[in-house]
Amino acid sequence: MKLYEIVEFLDDLLKVKEWQDKSNNGLQVEGKEEIKKVAFAVDACMDVFERAKESNADMIVVHHGLIWGGIDYVKGVVKRRLEFLLKNGISLYAVHLPLDAHPSLGNNAQILKALGLEPTESFGVYQGKEIGYIGVYDESKPLEDVLKVVRENINESLMVLDFGSRNISRIGVVSGRGCFALVEAVEKKVDLFITGEQDHSVYHLAKECGINVVFAGHYATETFGVKALMRVIAGEFDVDVEFIDVPTGL
Predict the structure, then answer these.
(1) pTM of this structure
(2) What is the reported pLDDT for 200?
(3) What's the maximum distance between 2 C-alpha atoms anywhere in the chain?
(4) Which of 22, 39, 187, 211 has CA atoms 20 to 30 A from the CA of 178?
(5) Is 200:144 a contact under the CB 8 Å cutoff?
């Protein structure tokens, strides 16, 4: 396949031009014109790049790219990363907020689906747009039962603030660094708020607002979108695909 065909498809599918995002969404590094294999990962880093080369990938699609607003200097880590990609002809495509917020392929929608829910209501306003989703069980479930499902489908290692209802009906999800949406989750009467990174300031806020919060890991909550995107690319194009798992434990 041609690189430009895949890039145009992704740009259109994810509506990257509609987003104001610190991340430079889209094709960040241009490599080979012909694409036979596309690798997918969470982070643009040397561990991912080296494994992509070993697996003969011509293109890498990531959630966290290399360029955030612009490049100040081409030296040090930036120089080494760019040099490696260009020397090996590997293209890099990054998609940040558009992948968080996508109604079917996004991290937050996919997490809800992994918990047996459909994303029925958007929330979590970030830079003027809602990037999170809420799902609602037909019948409420005990908190411990829901946490078991979260551990099985997202991350075995959870930090839980169980300050809310023992029966869960409404679950809100904002992956990654999503604690900014906690107050809105309370306003939307969410019983369990799931995000990635821990934030010290959330403890007392959650306790005083009476809401359950799960910190499931930034990395763990943001593998869902790129994996969903990988499945779409595999179905749309005659290319091999691979997910490169480089967990940070954070």
Answers:
(1) 0.96
(2) 96
(3) 56
(4) 39
(5) no
